[in-house]
Amino acid sequence: MGKRVVFHTASLRGGGAERVFTLMANALAARGHEVTLFTWNAEGPNAQLLSPAVQLVSLDMPIVGEGYGKPGTLRGIARSVAFFGRHRPDVVFAAPEFANLAMAIALIGAASRARFFPSFHAAASLPSNDFGAKLAIAMSALVRLRAERAIAVSQGVGRDLVARGFPSERVVVINNPLSGAIAGKDETHDWQTALAGMGDGPVVATAGRLVAVKDHLTLLEAFAQLRAERAARLVIFGDGPLEGALRAKADALGIGASVLLPGYVNDPSACYKAADLFVLSSTSEGFGNVLIEAMAEGVPVVSTDAPHGPKEILADGRYGPLVPVGDAGALALAMASALDAPLDAQTLRNRAADFGIDIITDRYEALFA
After folding, report:
1. Cα–Cα distance, 268 to 166 (Å, whole number)
2. What's the CATH architecture for 190-354?
3. Over pLDDT 70: what percentage of the chain?
4. Does residue 61 contact residue 9 with C-beta atoms inside 8 Å?
5. Does 307 have pLDDT greater than 70?
């Protein structure tokens, strides 16, 4: 018998957790559950991926910078209490960190009996000066009190949760899913024309928010070293506050003409198909969805050994080199090696299939079956 399931993220912007919940909402709705995606602001590219079978409920709250501000957050929690009072779900999933706290408070305020599964997507080692993130960690006892089980997207994140006080028997590791159909429409994008105009050489690609934790500055330094030895092009897919700084860095390194920043592209298949190599340069990565998406397209990958997901996805380097965080020289050497001797495409696809949407949906559904 189908359950009334709610997924909550604070917005539908282009983050990994938001995309994961969109995919999981679609998958559970396809299995006959009554699924609602509840968000404080539905603007963002992930809204375009939502199945018509999923009800979208948005509070249409204005986003201030990267969040809602303290007054907005309090209003959002109060309105979430009202939502749960009306909707009365059987199951609630939330992500990321601050959304977990907001929903724990809202569920308690609404006297909801829903089974609550907060999902954690970032390593505890990820530094943050954001007030909301710090508050969420400080008040994690409240989340532990209300949660039935905590979902960790990798074994490493699971260990972090136990170290923070979550009982190990109440932590379940469920990796993020690879969509069964990530291909977009067969159309030409402006960035493809721009890329073709940048000359010859293999295409190195990465994708993610243009924020410090993705460490695109080290990637640019590594690419400059690679570019000194061979023709190559770099594409950094994503948007964020550091775009101007990255363009300036590329120009200062003398590689500006070989680096393309096309912004957020909501057609991941086209991005990966354009690449000869995919590189993840993060300093911290709870999982690393982009690695399995690239591998699903048969694209070789190189990653920093960022805590915690890349090492688990790449099986300690079996499916792609792992290099120390922040080491541009090591990253450049690994990129050159992967371009010269790429791993077999079918081997990469087979590994990506371990994270298939049906496998991950089975695990989500088992939580509340």
Report:
1. 35
2. 3-Layer(aba) Sandwich (3.40)
3. 93
4. no
5. yes
d(CA 88, CA 92) in angstroms, rounded, equals: 10
Q: What is the DSSP string of 256-295?
A: GGGEEEEE--S-HHHHHHT-SEEEE--S-BSS-HHHHHHH
Q: Among 3.40.50.2000, 3.30.70.870, 1.10.260.40, 3.40.309.10, what is the CATH number of 4-174?
A: 3.40.50.2000
Q: In DSSP terms, which residues pair with 204 in a beta bridge?
A: 234, 277
Whole-number Å distance between alpha carbons of 327 and 251: 20
Total length of the chain:
369
Cβ burial, residue 119 (10 Å; 0-12/13-18/19+): buried
**Strand, helix or coil at 120?**
strand
| Mean pLDDT, rounded, for 267-293 | 94
| Angle ∠(46,129,126) on CA atoms, nearest 5 | 70
Domain ranges of the chain: 4-174, 190-354
| Cis upstream peptide for 96 (omega within 30°) | yes
DSSP labels for 159-208? HHHHHTT--GGGEEE-PPPBPS-----S---HHHHHHHTT-SSPEEEEES
Predicted confidence (pLDDT) at residue 126 exceeds the cutoff of 50? no
